[in-house]
Specification:
Layout: E1 3-8, H1 16-31, E2 35-40, H2 46-57, H3 63-70, H4 72-87, E3 92-95, E4 102-104, E5 113-116, H5 119-128, E6 131-135, E7 138-141, E8 146-149, H6 155-165, E9 170-175, E10 196-198, H7 199-207, H8 215-224, E11 228-232, E12 249-252, E13 265-281, H9 286-296, E14 304-306, E15 314-322, H10 326-335, H11 337-340, E16 344-357, H12 367-377, E17 384-388, E18 391-397, H13 401-411
Parallel strand pairs: 1-2, 1-9, 2-6, 3-6, 9-11, 10-12
Antiparallel strand pairs: 4-5, 7-8, 11-12, 13-15, 13-16, 14-15, 16-18, 17-18
Bound molecules: aspartic acid and magnesium ion.
Length: 417
């Protein structure tokens, strides 16, 4: 017998029929003798609608009220699933974040989980075989007693955090894809599903644009060493052997992965914008003068490229920001112009970042060099490059994204036969 967290996303609970399907998945695991905590998202599209309502009510709305409103989607699905489970003769009870409680920071709309008390859930497993149906995405701040939410996609994080709190053997993320792929199969039909992927690689994939899981959830899995299994919720519950290994991807520690490629996967993001600050005086403190105000404005700067000036007088500095922060970033730099001292701002919004990820890169030289040659062969110009131990990224014209991803996918032997 084991202890399991089962998380179902918005498409898996999009209507009552699908909620019934979810209940049958839960029943299968309960019948197999497992203790089960289920974490649910809001019905597909519901959170978007609630966010829209907040904006309609007032563009400058209070973040505490935003949380009160958007947390309601998960409240509905947790109650509905508990009802359906009870109807199938399974002991079940719904839980809101505040009832458990899931204590979070007070950063409304992007709160971090601080602590979860799993005692009551565990004792109900033991005393009454009761399934806990937990509303994802939400918590409570203990100081203010107000509802909080964890940021979009936050139910993944709720699920892994619950798994850590109740010391689950595994956290199953049921979703509308059947696992983690080497890249987006819609772009590269030859993309392969990975049987296993290391936490670190998954963290990079998710951070660089793969949309399977919220980044925070992978981080939590890594910290608490909770194996996270990504699998499809559309497989027929009756067809699955609860003791066998269903199709899916296990995110686990590196030691558990025997065979590994140098490159694990390729991620891309078109939500990037490039800003180049031209002819800045080349003197101490300019980088601080540029990035200080951006940090204060809470703008995440990603790639940074600075030239070494030839004449020792002026230099150029290029960086990228999320496309959604582009206007704010430009304004921030413009208003600091006198302090920074530069000639001109250039920018581009039709750019994309393609990232190649693999913990195998640590022990292999020349991995990035191969990519540069391959991209040159396709006449794709690289605007900026960044590298880290297990990843490198190139910034290119957005129009070439698909071509670049396909080229690199083939280059690193990721295409399926
Ligand atoms: N319902 C929330 C959202 O759409 C949380 C989640 O689904 O993970 O962002
Ligand atoms: Mg999601």
């Amino acid at each position: 017998m084991g202890r399991l967290v089962m998380k179902f996303g918005g498409t898996s609970v999009a209507n009552i029929d699908r909620i019934r399907n979810v209940a049958r998945h839960v029943k299968r695991e309960v019948d197999a003798g497992h203790h089960v905590a289920v974490v649910v998202s809001a019905m597909a599209g519901k959170t978007n609608e609630l966010v829209e309502w907040c904006r309609d009510a007032s563009p400058m709305h209070d973040a505490r009220e935003y949380d009160a409103i958007v947390a309601s989607g998960e409240q509905v699905t947790s109650g509905l699933l508990a009802i359906v489970l009870q109807g199938m003769g399974i002991q079940a009870r719904s839980w809101q974040g505040w009832q458990i409680p899931i204590r979070t920071s007070d950063a409304h709309a992007s709160a971090r989980i601080l602590e979860i008390d799993g005692a009551e859930i565990i004792s109900r497993f033991q005393d009454r075989q009761e399934v806990a149906v937990i509303a994802g995405f939400q918590g409570i701040n203990p100081q203010t007693n107000r509802l909080t939410t964890l940021g979009r996609g936050g139910s993944d994080t709720s699920a892994v955090a619950i798994a850590a709190a109740i010391r689950a053997d595994r956290c199953d993320i049921y979703t509308d894809v059947d696992g983690v792929y080497t890249t987006d199969p819609r772009v590269v039909p030859k993309a392969r599903r990975l049987d296993k992927i290391a936490f670190e690689d998954m963290l990079e994939l998710a951070s660089q644009g793969a949309k399977v899981l919220q980044v925070r959830s992978v981080e939590l899995g890594m910290v608490h060493n909770i194996p996270v299994f990504v699998r499809s919720s559309f497989d027929k519950p009756e067809d699955i052997d609860p003791h066998g290994t269903p199709p899916g991807t296990l995110i686990c520690s590196e030691e558990e992965i025997m065979e590994s490629h140098v490159v694990t996967g390729i991620a891309f993001s078109k939500d990037e914008a490039q800003i180049s600050v031209r002819q800045i005086e080349d003197k101490p403190g300019v980088a601080a003068a540029i990035f200080g105000p951006l940090a204060e404005a809470n703008i995440n700067v990603d790639m940074i490229v600075q030239n070494v000036s030839e004449d020792g007088k002026t230099t150029d500095l290029t960086f990228t920001v999320p496309a959604s922060d582009y206007n704010r970033a430009r304004d921030t730099i413009s208003s600091a112009k006198a302090k920074i001292g530069y000639a001109r701002l250039d920018s581009a919004t039709d750019v994309a970042k393609v990232s190649v990820i693999g913990s195998g890169m640590r022990s292999h030289a020349g991995v990035a060099a191969q990519a540069f040659t391959a991209l040159a062969g396709r006449n794709i110009n690289i605007r900026a490059i960044t590298t880290s131990e297990i990843k490198f990224s190139v910034l290119i014209d957005a129009a070439y994204t698909e071509l670049a991803v396909r080229t690199l996918h083939t280059l690193y032997g990721l295409d399926q036969a």
